[in-house]
Amino acid sequence: MRFRDAAKRRLTGFSERDRAGKTSSARSGRGRSAQDGFARPRSSSIPLAFVPAGGMAVVVSVRGDEEMRRHLENLGFVDGAGVVVASEMAGSLIVEVKGSRVALDRKTAMKISVGAA
């Protein structure tokens, strides 16, 4: 659960606290070096599989072989497309993208990188 919480913080722009209790915005990229006592900002994209149910995100990139990328593009997973994770069950996701609901297995959802909406 800890990894999923970290993914949620990155997508929602929650602030992070370092050990000294100082705050740094993970989303703004304004974090300072550890020498200054601030946490460093984290990567701005995560796999779609880590977005919690009800979470919104924007497609950043799609990995995989050419056939897989083409298939996902035809479903609407293109750079800049908004996605909403409608639900997750048994390792699969139901995702809303471009007005359609699409079911993805976890392996496929790991190939889609998303950022904050």
UniProtKB/TrEMBL annotation:
One of its GO terms (molecular function) is transition metal ion binding. Residues 22-34 have a biased composition (Low complexity). Keywords: Iron. SMART domains: FeoA. The keyword Transferase does not apply. It holds the Pfam family FeoA. Residues 1-42 are annotated as: Disordered. Residues 46-116 form the Ferrous iron transporter FeoA-like domain. InterPro entries: Fe-transptr_FeoA-like, FeoA-like, FeoA_core_dom, Transcriptional_repressor_C. The keyword Iron applies. This is Ferrous iron transport protein A. It comes from Slackia piriformis.
